[in-house]
């Protein structure tokens, strides 16, 4: 009888060690999943911010186009506060925006044209947090039979995107 108890002792020790490892690994996986779910999607937040800036710049260009008598090109200016006097704004740069006959930023009706619109309106590279933003053109005639539905879609390789309706100037919210 004594031999049987000592024979079971190593098996029980191995079982306890395996059980401890399994519990520890399960807890670690649980913590990893919990913390990953709580972390904000920074690319989504950044794309939403870019969409808001895009919409603001498009509207500014449209109203400037109206104010200047509907020219083919408007010069959009960017201002920043002075370091020594935050209440005083200083023009940091100007960039041209080509306008359509109805007063919205325009370019050729291709993916390259959508990239040009991004560059004109935002004056930033097509990039978010090191990831390339892809500009795609969707012809409204092919989508719905209406040319006014033509749009540029700005997206990351996977996930969220926002759209700019080329002929109406409407910026559609970020979609997931």
Structure characterization notes:
This protein has 176 residues and is of the alpha+beta class. 45% of the residues lie in helices and 24% in strands. β1 and β2 form a beta hairpin. The N and C termini lie far apart (67 Å). The model has no long low-confidence stretch (mean pLDDT 87).
Q: What's a concise summary of this model?
A:
The protein is an alpha+beta fold and about 180 residues long. It is about 45% helix and about 25% strand.
Give the helix/strand layout.
Elements: H1 2-38, H2 42-67, E1 73-81, E2 89-98, H3 111-122, E3 127-128, E4 131-132, E5 134-138, H4 140-144, E6 151-155, E7 161-165, E8 171-175
Antiparallel strand pairs: 1-2, 3-4, 5-6, 6-7, 7-8
C-alpha end-to-end distance: 67 Å
**Unreliably modeled segments:** none
Number of helices: 4
Mean pLDDT, all residues: 87
Total count of strands: 8
The computed structural class is alpha+beta
Q: Largest sheet, if any?
A: 4 strands, antiparallel
Q: Nearest-angstrom radius of gyration?
A: 28 Å
* Strand line-up of the largest beta sheet: 5-6-7-8
Encode the helix/strand succession as letters: HHEEHEEEHEEE
Which percent range fits the helix content?
A: 40-55%
Strand fraction equals: 15-25%
Bulk shape: elongated
């Amino acid at each position: 009888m004594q031999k049987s108890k000592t024979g079971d002792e190593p098996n029980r020790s191995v079982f306890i060690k395996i059980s401890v490892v399994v519990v520890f690994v399960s807890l670690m996986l649980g913590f990893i999943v919990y913390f990953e779910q709580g972390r904000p999607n920074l690319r989504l937040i950044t794309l939403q911010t870019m969409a808001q800036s895009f919409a603001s710049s498009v509207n500014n260009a449209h109203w400037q186009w109206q104010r200047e008598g509907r020219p083919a090109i408007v010069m959009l200016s960017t201002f920043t506060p002075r370091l020594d006097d935050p209440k005083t704004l200083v023009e940091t740069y100007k960039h041209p925006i080509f306008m359509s006959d109805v007063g919205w930023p325009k370019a050729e009706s291709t993916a390259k044209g959508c990239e040009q619109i991004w560059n004109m309106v935002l004056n930033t590279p097509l990039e978010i947090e090191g990831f390339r933003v892809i500009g795609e053109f969707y012809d409204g005639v092919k989508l719905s039979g209406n040319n006014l539905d033509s749009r540029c879609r700005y997206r990351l390789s996977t996930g969220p995107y926002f759209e700019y309706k080329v002929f109406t100037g409407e910026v559609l919210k970020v979609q997931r």
